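Sequence in, structure out.
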Amino acid sequence: MSIVAQEQVWCSTTPKRSQGHDAAGLKSVGSALDVLECFATDGDLGVSDIARRLGVAKSTAHRLLQTLASRGFVEQHADSGQYRLGIHLYELGELALARNTLRHVALPFLRQVATATGLTTNLSVVDGPDVVFVERIENSDGVRMLGHFGRRLPAHTTSSGKAIAAFDHAADLARRRAGFPPRVSHTVRTEADWDRCLEQVRRVGYAASTSESFDGASSVAVPVIVNRTAIAAVSIFGPTEVIAPQVERLVPVLVAASRRIARAHSG
């Protein structure tokens, strides 16, 4: 499956955030945020594209885009007239990462894992039924396999999601409610399979994933546990032929990093 096709699967299987019961005056805010979500899987979109995806008139889509452009959240290409995410959104995202305490304390230990293993190393947290990779230190294999793929994946398709859900009831429940849509060849597809995965994690202390998020790729993850609850996961990712023979060597490296992160975060 191509990266583009995979990104479409990501978009269609990740439930939209609940918009709650916003007052009528805030509806436009929700609509503007819906516009930004449209760019999760496409680099450039036109007014017609946005109108079609949101089910609104082209005039409405144009007004929303112009408002976002005036604040730097999107920008319009001078030649094509299409829109893309703006630099101000990048600035705010960088600020969010820079101010993330967990990421800050974890970064030195992630670098140690990346150096010791030579593999792409991730720190992930849960967000509803998904995992978000808040830090990623890539090697060449990771770059080749991930390309420009985003930082969010359904939890049931990743070792990180399993590792966290095994020790976080809320994350487990969120994934169950969202279901287990298939992604690639070996993705968890049923609640019974999910149960077996989580029980395995609790028994051995780590999670593994083979051809569940990307065909031909594997990952191993260890939860970061604070007060008996997983607050994150540390994982490594790469080609299956590289990861599979090394699992026994990789797990202790991840466990050591996980414990150091937990201590640093608690202290």
